[in-house]
Amino acid sequence: MPELSPAAQAVLNAVTLKRYDVLYYACPKSIDQIKSDVAAALRAAVDQVVPDEPLYKGDQRWMFERDARQACRKKLLAIADELKA
Predict the structure, then answer these.
(1) What is the pLDDT of residue 85?
(2) Are residues 12 and 4 in contact, defined by beta-carbon separation less than 8 angstroms?
(3) How far apart are CA 66 and CA 55, in angstroms?
(4) CA dist 69 → 13, 40, 72, 74 (Å)
(5) What DSSP assignment string belongs to 27-80?
(6) Do the Cβ atoms of 78 and 10 come closer than 8 Å?
(7) Residue 43 and residue 78 in contact, taking contact as beta carbons nearer than 8 Å
(8) What is the pLDDT of residues 7-27, one digit of tens each?
(9) Is 7 helix (H, G, I), strand (E, B) or coil?
(10) What is the pLDDT of residues 36-72, one digit of tens each?
(11) What are the sequence ranges of the domains in the chain?
């Protein structure tokens, strides 16, 4: 299994501790399916909570806030990409 970032490890550990009462690296062979399921759930949550937004809406403050939201979205989607791989 490739090395996971601390963020991806934290997400996987939360799921496997709840389901199997072990950390993700001690989980049964189903870890690949768990990773895929978690990635899908994370993507769905990101789309609901931090939807993709148009680049420009006219207001400078809106653009600054949009950039902050989209940075958060990008980080969460990076975790999902890492887990899907």
Answers:
(1) 67
(2) yes
(3) 8
(4) 25, 20, 5, 9
(5) S-TTHHHHHHHHHHHHHHHHHHHS----S--S-HHHHHHHHHHHHHHHHHHHHH
(6) no
(7) no
(8) 999 999 999 999 889 999 898
(9) helix
(10) 999 999 999 999 999 888 766 667 777 778 888 899 9
(11) 6-84
Q: Are 43 and 79 in contact (CB under 8 A)?
A: no
Torsions phi, psi for 50 (to 5 deg): -130, 70
Residues belonging to the chain: 85
Record the tokens describing residue 11, joined without a space: 């997400």
| Cβ atoms of residues 55 and 67 within 8 Å | no
Instruction: Write down the pLDDT at residue 28.
Output: 72
Predicted local confidence at residue 67, as pLDDT: 85
On the CB side of 21, CA atoms within 13 Å amount to: 0
